[in-house]
Design a protein that fits this description.
This protein is mainly alpha-helical. It contains three helices and no strands. The radius of gyration is 22 Å and the shape is elongated. The chain crosses the membrane at residues 28-49, 55-75, 87-106.
């Protein structure tokens, strides 16, 4: 039995939707894990220098320097993004977000 053009288009649309859902969900999970890993690293980075009071300024300057250098590397070649570079960017975003959350916790 032959399918009509309408049935073929419905079948193709369903295959495309399934392909997009599986593709996006896989990378969304990886990005979410990288973001949460960055948040965990930020929590670790904010508690370790707090044990020694005199290292706070030096640790903050090192963290900001590393974040700025990685931002320059990531956004310098905006057209070419590998998956590993994108995942590292999500870790960096998680670190920044985690440091903001810790700053708000300290401020309240």
């Amino acid at each position: 039995m032959k399918h009509t053009n309408f049935q073929l288009s419905i079948i193709l649309i369903q295959k495309y939707i399934n392909k997009v859902k599986n593709y996006k969900l896989h990378y969304l999970n990886i990005k979410l894990i990288c973001f949460l890993l960055g948040f965990f690293i930020a929590t670790t980075l904010s508690t370790i220098p707090a044990q020694t009071d005199d290292w706070g300024v030096i640790a903050a300057s090192i963290i900001v320097s590393i974040i700025e250098i990685t931002s320059k590397i990531i956004y310098q070649n905006f057209k070419y993004h590998s998956i590993n570079l994108s995942n590292f960017n999500y870790i960096k975003i998680g670190i920044i977000y985690g440091l903001f959350v810790d700053a708000f916790k300290l401020g309240s």
